[in-house]
Design brief:
Blueprint lengths: L1 H8 L6 H8 L3 H7 L17 H9 L14 H7 L6 E7 L15 E3 L6 E3 L2 H10 L4 E5 L5 E13 H8 L1
Helix pairs in contact: 1-2, 2-3
């Protein structure tokens, strides 16, 4: 159905099976409509139903719902389309603190064990290093503002926007 919707919205010919799904009818009904010398729904050279006749037929079907963003002005489309998420997995310490972009100190993120700390400039690089460590350890300020070393006890899936909000 998704492929048929994409073809339909792109004003291309649509597979008969997809047209049946979009129109809420059995495929046998579409097969009858595309058969014969004067079919109700003419097909192209590869057997797909031409867009214009398919659109006219679908417009009469109660089961068919047009794509919401189709007739919106361009600036309205972004409000309707789902935003694509950008999830990441971040370490969480026993006290609930989360490794995030706001924990930059002295030009980088301090990760690793107490006796061998590493200072990494880029958040994504530091996060990747933590993800590959046996035990993810990083320095972060506590509620009083004192920097200390914590170790991950779990990993949490978060959106990048959530991490950026923690950094503020």
């Amino acid at each position: 159905m998704a492929e048929g919707r994409r073809d339909f919205d792109g004003r291309r010919s649509i597979a008969p099976e997809a047209l049946a799904l979009l129109g809420g009818v059995k495929f046998s009904r579409i097969r009858n409509m595309i058969s014969g010398n004067a079919p109700d729904l003419p097909r192209d050279e590869v057997g797909k139903v031409l867009h214009e006749p398919a659109a006219a037929w679908l417009a009469k079907r109660e089961a068919f719902l047009p794509t919401v963003w189709r007739d919106l002005p361009q600036e309205g489309i972004e409000k309707v389309r789902p935003s694509f998420v950008s999830p990441v997995f971040v370490p969480v310490a026993r006290d609930g603190s989360i490794f995030h972009p706001g924990q930059r100190r002295d030009g980088g993120y301090q990760i690793g064990p107490k006796d061998d700390p590493e200072n990494i400039e880029d958040f994504n690089t530091a996060l990747a290093a933590l993800q590959h460590a046996d035990v993810a350890r990083w320095r972060r300020p506590n509620p009083k503002g004192n920097w200390g070393l914590v170790s991950a006890v779990e990993w949490r899936r978060m959106e990048r926007a959530e991490l950026e909000a923690l950094a503020e």
